[in-house]
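Amino Acid Chain and Its Fold in Token Form
===========================================
Scope: a single protein chain, as residues and as a discrete description of its fold.
Amino acid sequence: labelled as such and written in the usual single-letter residue code.
Position: the record begins directly beneath this header, with no further notes in between.
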Amino acid sequence: MPPASPRSNDGYDIAFRVLLGIGAVVTPLSQLAWLCGNITARLTGHPWAPYQPVTALLHPALLWPHAGPTALLLGARIVPVAVLLALGAVAGLLWSRHQSSGASRKKKIPGMAKPKDVEPLMAKAITVKARSLRPSLKAAKHIAARDTGVLLGNLQGTRREVRMGYEDVAVAIMAPRSGKTTSLAIPSILAAPGPVLLTSNKAAGDAYTATLDARAAVGRVWSMDPQQIAHAAREMWWNPLAGAKTLDGAGRLAGHFLAASVDASQQGDFWSKAGSNILSQLFLAAALDERPITDVMQWLAFPADRAPLDVLRDHGFTAVAAQLKGTVEGPPETRDGIYETARQYAAALLDSEIAAWVTPQKDIAEFRPSQFVTSTDTLYLLSKDGGGGASALIAACADSVMRAATTQAERVGGRLDPPMLAILDEAANVCKISDLPDLYSHLGSRGIIPITILQSYRQGQKVWGDAGMDAMWSASTVKVIGAGIDDPDFADKLSRLIGDHDVETSSVSRSESGKSTSVSMRQERILPADAIRALPKGTALCFATGMRAAMLDLRPWYLEPGAADLSAASACASEGITARAIAKATPQPSDFGPAA
């Protein structure tokens, strides 16, 4: 006899499934018909019939001959069908809820980290580490979770928190509206046990308004807003020349103006380097003579002014003075080009509103980084994208705070306790610290915890170059990758870092002797590039040094306890910004001159 054809086998399968479906409906329906029919019979004064469910379904009159047709129709037909439909609806609802509540379990990806793979980032291990890192916690009987590390999220499919310790340094690459602010920046700031530094290009409805009141309750709030993003009154000033009394310090300050004006690929040309050198020499002279930084703009306008030369010589910087003199007395076209380049870099200092934030102000407190790093204060550094010299001042202030924190850590045994958190949001736009990749190699060991937040890997390459961004990526002990990765090369790099896993493959073959099944193993990417690109919002990949890549469920602040109070405070702060902006835009009587 010839073997059955695939078509006939498919017919048998369909018939079997149809019969199975009919049985799945008829069986419970017949049971309900017998039960409901008997209940109806008793209610109408008739005896209980023997157990014959099929007869109850097909010929109810045989079981209850004395019952009327209406009672039989209701008890053995309508009620059983209604009950079966209701039970089906309830079962469907329960199944739907089960599927919904188990969605995170369904999204688990084979090969990604399990709890044991990221145990050093879990509660028990991270608490032990916190005791060893922070002397103030060694004798504590109970340590709050916020004192152990920065919450990154929950390990996907579980309620187990994943935290980076207070010796880790992190880079977060997350596209706009992927949770970088709501799930990383804001929760970190709210839970920080020590001083907090935040850079941002937004105020209303962002980390600034969401955390302003909460941080004011634990320490003083400092806001540096030279471009009036928050439209707040100026209540502080900072002296950028305080750390420029050495050639290295002056060079770092000039480097911030250079980085804010040109990309990394252009910083090596003659004019850029020469303009930066002139700035550093003039910054050094102004700092040594305790002048305001705005005097540098006067010297740039008049290269023949001998005041900076005399200051440098009087303080023993004769070689620097000789270089400055050589530039001033060089060919006029070269000198003018160099000075014009330097003027462009520092052009923001010509704006009196911006300059007021970095020059002495009467009756306004001076922000001192050395005092800030030993407090529980908060510093908000706000600047617009492409802010040029204004963003240079933001980067310089952030750099001075981290350098002051490093100095303080060395004075107290090597590490700050409590640690300082530096959230460098929009770092590639408003906080271009040229040697930030190099700083990453030691900041964590000092109790200074930077989290640099970028929108893409290429954004970092544009600011720090390929080598610099690679160095920062390699030095980061924690890397968080959120939704919105559209760079195919970077997505493929991440896919390769996550690795492969074994996949069981079954193959079926048919022959005259029958059907045979074989099983083989093959290697497959755990998370291919297209899956990384399609990461849903609310999830993130976490790469921690020495551990498997983990998938995280993010924890936005507005879903946490106390969110209602924070939302109200944020809305109030945002309304204040709006009101101040409207007041500034509304013409005042004085704007039109004296009345006739």
